[in-house]
Amino acid sequence: MKPGYNVLIGTENQFIVGYSLHQRPTDTRCLKPHLEKVKAALGKLPDTVIADAGYGGEENYAYLEQEEVQAIVKYSTYHKEKSKKWQLEVGWLSLAHNLLKWATMNQKGRVRVQV
Q1: pLDDT (tens digit, 9 = 90+) per residue, 47-95?
Q2: How far apart are alpha carbons 51 and 6 in whole angstroms?
Q3: Would you list the domain boundaries of the chain?
Q4: Rounded to two decimals, what is the model's pTM?
Q5: 36 vs 10, 19, 63, 64, CA distance in Å?
Q6: Is 95 helix (H, G, I), strand (E, B) or coil?
């Protein structure tokens, strides 16, 4: 069972500039409301937001871009994609995809391969 609350704290030069409490267990859905609260309190958003991969999501990236805030936020599969296992699996999937594509084209008579 996941916790029912999520607490976010924003800092600048090691000083707390904002905090928020959310009834959402996932980080992804908390970033925008947190930054809106910070913006309301300070009158503006920070120039740069640094956050871990838990906050990486298309909606958050779009929001930060719209607000012209530099985002240093990893996407959620960053660490997975850097692993050797992931790279091997993607390599095999790519090879399988290309073989299936070649077989389909060959069956339709569009491509002739001589060996």
Answers
A1: 999 998 889 889 999 999 999 999 999 877 777 777 787 777 777 677 7
A2: 15
A3: 6-76, 83-115
A4: 0.66
A5: 12, 11, 11, 11
A6: helix
Residue written as token pair 């809106």: 36
Tokens describing residue 66: 């719209």
CA distance 81 to 76: 10
Q: Between vectors from CA 10 to CA 6 and to CA 12, what angle results, nearest 5°?
A: 165
Asked if pLDDT for residue 103 goes beyond 80, the answer is no
Write the DSSP string, 2-54. --S-EEEEEEETTEEEEEEEES-SSSTTTHHHHHHHHHHHHSS--SEEEE-GG
